[in-house]
C-alpha cells in the first residue's frame, strides 16, 4: 500500500505569530501533518529569515519576500513560503522533495535555496511572458507573491494574490497584470505537457455561492469572470477541486472580516483555492473524462479543526474606563486548505484526515475529494505590558504607617528635653537662652504650629482627592451617556474611526458591538450605525 501525498495551503497572516502560537516552527508544521505546506502572507523580509523561522528538521523550505516598499508598504507585508517534507535532505528521490524551485514566476528572480531551475523552463524571461517589459515583470515579482516548485509529476504554484479595492485603479491594474502573466505561464507549462497545481490565497471569490452576502451583480466583477473563464465547465483547462467535489455546498468559507468578528457566524467568503490541470497518469490514449485532478485527488476539504473562533471569545463592548487588559480579541483573516493529489494513483481514507499519527493510504478505487481548510488561531493578548492604571491610583490615601510616623515626630517636638542649637534656622534665639516659663511657652507654640500644619495638610489632601474623584465620576458618566445603544439589542455600541481616505477620514462613529452575521440571525450584528457628535479625530503629530 503506497502512501498518498497531502498538500496544505494556509494564509498565516504572519508566520511569526503562528510559530509563537504553536511553540516552534517544527510543531506548527507537524500539526498540519502534510507532505507539502504552502504558507501565504508570511510578512517576513529577507532580514527576518532566521533559522528558527525557516529551518525545521525533516523539511526543505523555500521563501519569497517583498522586495518593494511602494505606497508605504513595509518590506514584510506579504510573502509566501513552501515547506516540503523529506526523510533525508540528501535523498533526491523523495516524492515531496522538488527537483527544481523558482522564486516568482517571471524567470527574472534567482532560484530559491540553491536549486537550479531547468534551462529549458526558466530562461532569463519565462516562456510566454516575452510580450511584457522587463520593468512590468519585475514589478509583478517584487511583492513576494509566488513560489514555483517542480515535483516531477506536477509543478506547484504557491500564490498570494493581490488585493484591490473598487476605487483603487492602480492596484486593480496591478492585479489584472499579475494574473494575466500567471495565466500565460500556466498555458506554456500545459502546452509542454506538464501538470500544474495552483494553490493559495488568490483573493477572489469566484461565484455567489462563495460569498455570504453576494449582491445580484456579484459575479459581474472582472476578476470573478476571469476566474470562472479558466474552469473546465466554462471551456477552460483548470479544475476547481473543491467545487468539483462539493458543487452545492454553501457556507464553505475560508476568510472572514477581522474587524467585525464575522467568523462567529461564518459570515465570510471562499478566496483560498486549489486548482489543477493536465493529463492524468493512466497513460491512456483517450483522455476524455480524465484529468489530473479528477483522477488523482483523493480528498479535499476545509480544515474546521483549526477554526479560530470559539464560543465566548467574541469581541464585545468594553468600558473605556477599565484597565487595559484583554479588551479585544483579534479575529484575523487566516485560511488553510488541504489537498491530496498523488504522483500515481493515490487515494486516501477520510478517517485519517486530521490525525497527526495516521497516514494517508492508497485504496483500490478512487474516492471523493475536497479542498480548502480554514484555520484560525487566537492571537494572544499582551498581558502586563503598557497596562493603564486607573485614575484613582494617582490619589492614594495616606497609609496608617505614614500618619503614625508623623504623629511620632510631632510628639518628639513637644518634649522639653530637646536640645537646640544657639540659633535656629530662622534666626530665633534658641531654647537655651530662655527662662523656664518662656521656654515652656516657646515649646507649646511650636507644638501648636506643627499640629495645625499637619491637620491642614491632611484636610487639603482629602479635599483634593474628593474633588478629583467627583470629577472622574462626572467624566465617566458623561462618556457612558454619550455611547449610544444599538437598536437591535439595546446594548452599548463600540466606537470606530474612518481610516479610508476621503472627506470623512478621521471621523468617529458608533456601530453595534456584536459579530457580523446574516441579517436573518437576531444574535448577529444588527447593522446599527451612528456618527459621533464630536469633530474629526486629529492624528498625532499633525
Report on the structure:
The chain has 542 residues and is an alpha+beta fold. It has 10 helices and 16 strands. It is elongated and about 105 Å long. The longest helix has 47 residues, at 436-482. It has a 6-stranded mixed sheet. Helix 9 runs antiparallel to helix 10. The protein has helices spanning 15-22, 25-32, 51-54, 134-140, 169-191, 222-229, 241-245, 292-296, 400-414, 436-482; strands at residues 7-11, 36-40, 59-64, 80-85, 100-103, 146-150, 155-160, 196-201, 239-240, 255-256, 268-269, 272-277, 335-339, 494-497, 508-511, 529-531.
Distinctive features:
six-stranded mixed sheet; five-stranded mixed sheet; 16 strands; 542 residues; 13% strand; alpha+beta; disordered C terminus; single chain
Order of strands across the main sheet: 5-6-7-8-12-9
Distance between the termini: 68 Å
Q: What Rg, in angstroms, do the CA atoms define?
A: 34 Å
What assembly state would you assign to the polypeptide chains in this entry? single chain
The fraction of residues in strands falls at 5-15%
Short description:
With 542 residues, this protein is α+β, with helices and mostly antiparallel strands. It has ten helices and 16 strands. The longest helix has 47 residues, at 436-482.
